[in-house]
């Protein structure tokens, strides 16, 4: 063992939770305040407003003191009724889990099969929606950025498919690993519920999750028959008017959210997205430089927040283990169908060029030490991309 | 204005969230780690074990990345089916909210009326249970310490009522404002699901909640028909075996939990409970010294974690406002039926004699400044109690 | 033992170090930066400017990465030459230590005797200075607020004594336990070197100290013959022009200083001073209420930052021990001639009414438990003072 | 501009202050305690003992609440008298500053000239000492690791020179940028005073400094005639017996010290030194890979804690500026004679392989962007070294 594993900062390069900025951690460590007092109200109003631009929305955003899986459940229970049909796409592990949740909650799921190397297929969506003349499909569920594969679905084209079929189904989008990292526009793209979590592009610890809600979704919630209480939008939206919450909010994570939103605003969202794109490009340059393959097959669907490296003959877990043991870096494992066949590099959140260089250097060294044949020029290919202004 | 509102530490003397210890805040501010890695597994196993003594249980405790209201929902959805009857007691605002949730989730609630100055009535429970020879009542819901009134229900006597009636209903107990403050014994008292939150006696920020689960409750969950996914015990218990969680846990709050459990263990739970009892006694001594009345009427039901002061002619909110403005102390408002008729002093969590003296001094000065007639000997009565060894 | 010693916040009521505000501690915990880079320069320029109002000066203030004792040495070595005579006043323990340092550094000290219950005597000063027609006295050393006694010397009257005698001696003033707590005016009062530390009214941890420097002192430093290097003003002032320091500064304490200065500015220095005065008055009301005596004899010299309680027959240490053990509060011990004959209550820095009430309640209970005969009305006398707007 | 400068962690790769570990920053943020109380005494005794192994000593180590420059002054004023002769070696900027301080304090300095690319010359030392038959030289001053050049002097050979000449001069060694990074043995090497600071290998913020003291140095202090008070060892050593200090210590930095010493002990000093050697080797591999030159000329004197890169035709400052602006990394500038002719990479303290890779990648990219001709294989050469077990 190299001895390096016990010193210096851990490289947390899974695709979330991401490296939380020091100043966000310090903001979170402020004393908890009375969630019914005037100081809290000011905090509540501030973050409820400041979070909107990140979603690309002027409509309400609900904040849950819960992890992202909860916000998945909230999106479904607030808008749908037992037995409703939803259309989903097998883009990977998380898309699979979300539709399993839908089934468990009493919905009927049509799950369009996929190869886990592409995003949701707009063509298939359009065909299925056009065929649904009875409008039995009540919602279309799309994972914007599939965290298990590094493939970003083209949400605007799914929207176009709904529009082309003149279909009234709601569009529900999971942006858990894209929000704050990859360009996203809740309003412009006509999304009805956007689901997000705190621990990825928002640079917070896990524990907060979000629903951005269109007017159409709000209307749907008035008749949606799935039982709900904790997740119910209505009392939350009512209390939010004055900056409060119907039950105790995760106050300290809201401090962290305020700080992180300030950081995103200081950098500028356009710069944030460009930075993620740039780091994704440099990562793919390294992968190709090593002579390896990126899992995503369609370049229009390359993810800006993570890259999955394709090892079809297995061995990805051994690479990750070597890297964790020898270089103190955590990478994402292959999940579901992809167990041991990919490892995933997160390059999202609070991140910069030199941390990416360290990350890619660690991957290269780990591949070598794990006995994977790679061209050592990979790292230089990344540097060349990063040397560009 | 006194100018004091802008300096020194705020006195957060609501009955939760409580004053989070500095060392817990610092523990929480450690960098977030990979929730799938070996370091996390060790953390998970440690806290899942260490939390049990606080519940007085050797059975599993589920930890949710959510606030206490979520754990209420979890207790119901994991054990009950649509249309099931539950028996609840109107002990105050939170008991009322919990049974409203039950109704909203599709349960049938029998709500035993109460005067908000007593706990759940064991006699009424026994009569109702004895009458239910068909065993239509599937669960009995009790709030151990009613945060809105400062009344602690005698859970062992409710258990005895179930036993006397030989009734198979589950016993579900909310300990949100008692756990870690008032003696509580999940196993010994035969409770089936104990609901708790992080932000009171556990001395954490809000954002974690708990279900301690009896074997009988676990069995019930196998046939319980309420839809559930996020709250479902089974995948959580399965993942917990190795220290993991089925979805992203609130990692940094788990750091805080580890630290707070260490503090409770260092002090010793018996000492923790005795301390709360002592502070509650000193507080009541002050209340009586001022010539005022405690809301709780039955001395067997005095709360160790908070004291509500009864102002039947109103004016409690004005007192709180003066105290917040002039002495930078937050107190609890009257809720529901008690709006403006009580204010509540939280004396739980990370707390000591001198902070209590400051708290009671602030209440006395605030009462005077708000024009309430009080005997200024109140503070001395508290000191006399605290002077005792 | 009461069990309270292991929980809640410690009451640090010594007359410094004082209770450091949470936000100052968090500011201090930001990552250390390059002390030669542009971000540091901005920090340096900001604090060097922002610290001036607290001294009441528009002239340079030198910041040392050292404790206050170092700033004592700096004041002497930068302005005086071996064998020079200085005039000092025996106001207490720290005045005694400072003149001992002067002797050790090779100066000749005239030490005007005192009873440790009064400040520096302006009358004696004037007589001695008038008699010194040869101007052998090169500097007059005054401790503004004697931390060992709670007596505040009347610096303007010492200045007047110098002026009346038309004497050119420098006026060196120690404000270690007054700066940021008690009204002080370096420029208006014609002080030549003001010595200060970080850990009292400035609300920082120990580790920074200060010299505010008049033009006359700067001129003196050009010919002052005491050897000096680390303490030498000249290279510091030169580097400070651009926000830098000649050797590595205590960067993280400068973060803390920036935050604390912001807090003082937010409260307003006039409010800060009034708050300290008010708390000192309430403390003396309690002392008298108990039937005890304040050490300071001249009401013009009562300290706003601490109060020493006079127990001429001894026993003060036993009181402090009981209070530390039973109520987890640290008080200041009697020092030098006053060992066991006083204990000192610090009521300075980040402090407010309710913390003072807790402090005084703790003192009252401790006195009772230590067997000192006191009237329990003391606490109420303090509350009465604090009830006033 | 790349936009990367506003996100992610800054790379602080100057040769100190170094990257302070998060856990040290959090330890430092604990509330300040009474420096005269029992809790402090335990802290004091603990750190005074735990710091000794890092110096390789069983003799006393004095801790100053001051920066390293102060400890330089302490080493001189405690052991020497006005007019005493000291022998020093021109190894670089800091050696030059230290002997300037000696002159300023009234000592006579013999300064052996050097080329700033070698350490102190043992041969020259031996010759000069042998010639000093009158033993006019009272102390030999050596900078162990010259921070301005990345050259480590061979202290044992200087000791041997003293021994060979049978010369009684004290051996004073500055280990400011080597302690805790490069193998060092105060006792074994017969050093009399070792000077150190907190902000390099000890991984703390600046603000503490140290003197490790031999018995011979202690004896010398009894007759040493330079005036001293703040720096005087005697009252410090006396108070240290019970864990206290004669004046207010930098309490929060002592918390940090306790934490950092624990980290060094956990890693093991031998591992710490080996890690630094390994990172220095990888850095030199990169430098040579780029086709550039390391400033240090003698491979026995390569520094484990920093590497200076030699750009004899200038331009080093432009490289640093590009790197700071484009890659948010701080590097050390050339100092004194080396202005603009070197830049220095710090690879010491809390550091690991991947952070080094990021650092070297940033240097490579910065060199390219600054227009310096380099072979891009440099980074791979470093990876090859780090790939080795």
From TrEMBL, chains A, B, C, D:
Substrate binds at residue 344. The modification N6-(pyridoxal phosphate)lysine is found at residue 200. Its cofactor is pyridoxal 5'-phosphate. This is Tritium exchange subunit. Keywords: Aminotransferase, Pyridoxal phosphate, Pyruvate, Transferase. GO terms for biological process: glycine biosynthetic process, by transamination of glyoxylate. Gene3D superfamilies: Aspartate Aminotransferase, domain 1, Type I PLP-dependent aspartate aminotransferase-like (Major domain). One of its GO terms (molecular function) is alanine-glyoxylate transaminase activity. Belongs to the class-V pyridoxal-phosphate-dependent aminotransferase family. The keyword Transferase applies. Residues 14-311 form the Aminotransferase class V domain. The lineage of its organism: Bacteria, Bacillati, Actinomycetota, Actinomycetes, Geodermatophilales. Heterodimer of a large and a small subunit. Pfam families: Aminotran_5 (PF00266). Soluble hydrogenase catalyzes both production and consumption of hydrogen from suitable artificial electron donors or acceptors. This subunit catalyzes the tritium-exchange activity.
